[in-house]
Each structure stands twice: as C-alpha cells, then as structure tokens.
Amino acid sequence: MLYPNNSIDKLGFTEVKELIKAHCLSIMGQQMVDKIQVMSNFDLIKKFLNQAAEFKNILQNDAALPIHHFFDIKSLANKAKLEGAFLTEDEFFQVLSSLTTVFAVIAYFNQREGQYPNLEALFEHLPIEKAIVKKIEQVIDAKGKIKPNASRELADITAGIAKAEQDARRKIDQIFKSASSNGWTADGSLTVRDGRLCIPLLAENKRKLKGFIHDESASGQTVYMEPEEVFTLNNLIRDLEFERRREIVKILTALTNELRPYVPLLLSYHSLLTKLDFVRAKALFAIDIEADMPQVVNEPSLKLTNARHPLLLLNFKKEGKTVVPLNLKIDEGTRVVVVSGPNAGGKSVCMKTVGLLQIMAQSGLLIPADEASEVGVFKQFFVDIGDDQSIESDLSTYSAHLSKMKTFVEQANGRSMILIDEFGTGTDPQFGGPIAEAVLESLNIKKVRGMVTTHYSNLKIFAGNTEGIENASMLFNNVEMQPLYILEIGKPGSSYAFEIAQKIGLPKQVLELAKNKISAGQKSVDTLLVGLEREKKEILDTRVKLERQQKHVNMLLSENEKLKSYLDENKKELIRKAKDEAKNIILNANKLVENTISEIKSSNADKETTRKLRDNLSRELEKNVVKPPVQKRAPEDDSEINIGDWVKLTDSETTGQVMEIAKDNIIIAIGDLRTVAKRKRVQKVSKSSIPKDIRRSFTSATNDFAGFNPEIDVRGMRTEDAIAAIERLFDRALMMGYGNLKILHGKGDGILRKMIRQYLKKYDQVDRLEDEHADRGGDGITYVYLK
C-alpha cells in the first residue's frame, strides 16, 4: 500500500519507469513496465531481483542473447482463434520471426543449463513446436511474401499471368514500333495510364489505330491509347490476378486453420517474449545507474551502503559530476531517523533516496548501492513530501499535512515505512513542534520504521532521548559555508540560519537584531551544534590520517617480515654453495696430487722433474684454496652489547653487526647472512676497526631490500615498455624471494592486461594470476603469486 496515491511521483518512481520503458523493444514490454507495482511477497521480490541480476550478467559478461524480433503474437493468436478469419502474409511473417526468436532464446539457455536458473524458469516446461515454423515456411518466403508455388493452382495462375504479360508486352511493342515508323506517335515512349500500358499518339492520328483512350495531355495534343489487341490480353491478366488473390486467401485460410490448434502455445510464446523484453529493459537500466542486487531479508529493515539516488546519478553523469554516497541503517534498534541540518544541505534528497531505493527493490529493480546492502519488506509506505494544499477541499498546507498525519497514526504499524519531509512545518512553530513531537511519539510506540527531516529543536531533543529514534545530520563545512551532502548518524545538525544569511549578504545590523530576538537557550543549543560539528570534522580528519599512518606501518612490518624470511633462506643457499665449492676444490686437489705422484713415478724420481712437478702442484693448490683475509686484531671491548654494535666470534675472526638480542642468544648480520650465537661466544669490537668496504656492503644490501616495492603501475605505458618494467620487477622479486607482485594496468579495452598475462604465464616460477576484488579495482589490477 502506498499513501497517498501520488507518492510514487513524489519519490521519482514514475520517472524511473519511463527510463526503463525507453529500453523496451516492444509495446508489450512497455505495457509490463507500466504495470510494475510495489510487492510485499518476499519470494516474488527475490525472484524478480534475481532475474534482473542474471540478465545484467548476460549483458555484461556473456554472449549476446539472440533477441531480434518482438511482435505482438497475442493479437495475432486471438485473430487466428476466430473461425473463418485468416492471417495476412505480413502477419504470418511476424509469427514466423517471433517463433524463430523464441526457439533461439530457448537454445541459448539450454546451452547454459543451470547458469541462469531464474531466467530459465520463464520457459520451464514450454515445448518447442517447430511444426508451426515448418507449416508457415512452406507458404511464406524469407521476405514475408507468399511463395509462388504455395499450391499447384497458385503456381498455374502465376505462370498464366507471366505468359499473358509477355504476350501483351510483345504485342504492344510491335504496334508502337509500327505507329512510330508511320509518324503517328508523339515524343516519348510507352507509358502507364490507369494501370494499363499505353501508346502516346498525336491527337490527329487517334483514329488511325483501334483501341481505348485512357487519358490525354494537358494541351490535348497527345492521347494515350491502349490498342484493341492488347486490351483483351490485359483483361485476361486482370482476371488472372483476381483469381490469384482468391487462391492466396484460400491458402492463408487453410494455413490459419492449421495454426488454430496452436493458439494457446502461441500465447505462451508471446508471454515469454514479453517477459524477456521486460527483464532486459530492467537490466539495461540497472547498468545505466550502476545498480547491483542487494541482500533481501524478510523483515522490515534497511541497510544501505554507498547508495545513490538513480535520477541524480544519471544527471550528474551528463555533467561529469559524482554523487556523494549514502550510508544508512534502519532496524529494530534504530527505527526512525530524524535528519536535521541546513537548507539545501541534502536532507530531502537523502530521504527520497531511501524511499525510492526501497520501492525499487520491492518492485524487483536492482538499486545503485553496494551488494552488501540489505533491503527488507515493508507492507505499507506513508509519504508526506511537498505542499499538498487543496483549493477544492479548502485545505491549507498545514491542514493537508495534519490530514496525512491522522492517516499515518491510525493505519501505520511495525511493517510500515514513513517518509516525512519538513516535519511539523506550516504553522506556528510554538504549536507545530509539540504536535509533530506527539505524532512522532505515537508512531514510535507502534514501532513504525522510516525517516523524517526537520529544523525543530524539540524534535532533535526528543530523538536524542527516545529509544528507537536516532538523530542524524547532513554535514556542513562551516568554514567555507558549503554543504558536504554526507549523512552523519548519531547527532543532530544545526540549521546554520545565521551563517547562511551572512553568506548571502543580509545586512549585519539585521543579523544582530535577529540574534538578539532569539532566546538564550535556543542560541546556546545552536552554538553547541555548530561546535560539535566542527569537532566531529576534526576527529574525522584525524582518524583518516591515523588510518593512513597505520596502513603505512603495516606495510613496513610486512616488508620487514618478508626481508627476514628471505635472508634466512638465502643463508642456507650460500652455505650449500660454499660446501659444493669446497667439495669441488678438494676433488680437484686430490686429482692433481694423484697426477703428480704418477708423473714422478714415471720419471723414475728424477730430481729436476720432481722439483718442477712439486712447484706446479704448489701453484695449483694456491689457486684453488681460499685463504682467509689477514685482519688486524680488533681491540676487545667488554662493555654491554646492544643492537647495532659490531661484534666478532671468539672462536674465529668472523665479524658482524648485532640485529637482535633474545636472552642469551644474539642474532648477528654477517654480510647478507644471519647467524645466531650465544652471548659468551661473541666479543664487542669498535666500529672503526671494521673495514669500510664491509660496512658499506652491509648498508647497501639492507637498503636494497628495504627499498624494494612489490607493486608497479604501468597504466598509460606502451605494451613493450610495460613488459620491460614488469620483467625487471619480476627478476628482483625472484632474487629477493618475494611471494607475490601487484600490477596496476587499468581496464581500458583489456589489451594491456591480456599481453601482460600472456607474458607472465611463460615463467615456471609463476604459480597463478588473480584479479583484484571488484570493489578495489577488479580486472584493472593483476596479482602475481610466485611459487
């Protein structure tokens, strides 16, 4: 139930329906749009929303649905149902085209069985009767005309007409040629008069030929004659054409009689086409307004996340502007939201957005809000927007409002939604405010849901002190004196009457006089609200700043963990390589010694030869054996060891820098490696005793790891440049052991995304590729996960 009847106009739902009708392909679809009604059946609402969501998915992500022809089969079927009636050639062609579309659509969904269950339900158990198509195709050709051989009689008649036309043409050509040679004809050629082919003769020669004169020129000097011999042949042609028409009617009547038993099936096909056109129009409109399917709950509640007014969204799109999204929750705890704030601050638009989106959802339409939004089911809608004063009923503006309030209080209940704009206005505020408060209290007792807008302070105070009613305000920048169009739940808002008056240039003395006339209590309340709003904005800005800083800290911690993990893995790899290298050195040394001994034996221990072989052996061993660098003994330091100090291991000359201290264990960075040693095994040394090249290499490696960013933005780059940049990042990520990369390439036509993914798939180190979440960039961002 909608009260009053013009509520849908006030909320903009009529305009929404007109925009949907513009997407319909047929009059039948438009008629269905006109019949859209607000439903209260939970299952029906969910079914219609799912149908629109599935069709939207087809339009955006699947092959085009083969919808080409939409004709009014219902009227044709009703005509065919009458005994003795017959469909014309054009009408049979419309039936044929529509059936072709129906069968193509059914085949489309059969190929995707189970993928679009709610749309498949539209033609569930609907048979594909191709016998109808075959019968029509035997008579009607691809251009919608009856075939010349639709029957043997028609074929004979058609052949007779063709032969008679040839004979008539041949005969008139002969006569025209003879008359021209005798100089009887006027300038020109054969012409048609009254549907007959005639010869143009000079008026003075009209008696030299026998025939029927059909016309003459304006000057009377030329007459147009049909020769006698041709006249008989043309009469024969006309008789045959009448006979052909009778045969066509006979054929069409017989075909209509064959079609008559299928009339109920044709009506079902008509219903399917109409519903498809209707759902398609809803899906196209949903794409226009960037709508999604919300969660549907079977209770009178509402939770909107990033909701926008659809009509405002379309208007702003044309102007290149964006709509400030609305976030709101109405449930058992917060039943009625009382919105206050400055004029032109967006209160009414906010309320209309809530009402319109709820009505759209309960009418089976997708809404411009996040998928996480929830819409419930309300049985009744009571709307009071605008001035409804009536001259006929002798009602003033306030009387009209009171009349509505009477109906609201009497008929509303816990499953009703109320929407009241400028609650209580139209009369003396001293009396209008208390009456509005009493009405609001009565509605709250009945647990009504909804939203009201007001400037009255007593309603703001009442909302703040009453369970089930919540204050809200439209934020306002009181520095620049500009509305922000953001709904803030939890506190009332100031009307900013004096601030707005000052901005538009009202004289200062007038403002001062006005301020002196308001009560001290009212002045202090308004000042308090302004101050609260200023503080709220400061807190909001601070919170945003802290969230940004926390995000940065989390990123640094994550990078540090990845760096530590990489260094641990790298340490093991270097030790393994060192062991392999040592093993190779030992093997080579053993072979060299064995060869030397063998050669000494073969030379019978000749002294000179033996000396040369020993010298060669010494040189080769010096090449392959790595000697530890000779370092000066660093002065010992027995003071306490802290993070960042340089230390050496007491049982070797190895030095490093302290990274962490855990009880008796000390984690030491030795170049790119990390090692753990007991406190008693290390000795502190001075930083000056450490060679500069060792300190420099340690700092360089650390900076290199810390400065690495696993994200890259290649939007706007050429494909070759983008792939080259990604390749460099990919190489560094593999070297540093990073587990994933983030590539921002944008959506566009999808070419850059496709080329990047093809390039990355050729690497064995790539485990998988994924799109970012739809809310954070979708397929405009690719995550690369490495093995």
TrEMBL record:
Record has Coiled coil as a keyword: yes
Subunit-structure text: Homodimer. Binds to stalled ribosomes, contacting rRNA.
PROSITE patterns: SMR
Residue ranges constituting the Smr domain according to the UniProt record: 712-787
Coiled coil ranges: 529-595
Record lineage: Bacteria, Pseudomonadati, Bacteroidota, Sphingobacteriia, Sphingobacteriales
List of residues binding ATP: 341-348
Alphabetical list of InterPro entries matching this protein: DNA_mismatch_repair_MutS_C, DNA_mismatch_repair_MutS_core, DNA_mismatch_repair_MutS_sf, MutS, MutS2, P-loop_NTPase, Smr_dom, Smr_dom_sf
Protein EC: 3.1.-.-, 3.6.4.-
Record-given protein name: Endonuclease MutS2
The entry's keywords: ATP-binding, Coiled coil, DNA-binding, Endonuclease, Hydrolase, Nuclease, Nucleotide-binding, RNA-binding, rRNA-binding
GO molecular function: ATP binding; ATP hydrolysis activity; ATP-dependent DNA damage sensor activity; endonuclease activity; mismatched DNA binding; ribosomal large subunit binding; rRNA binding
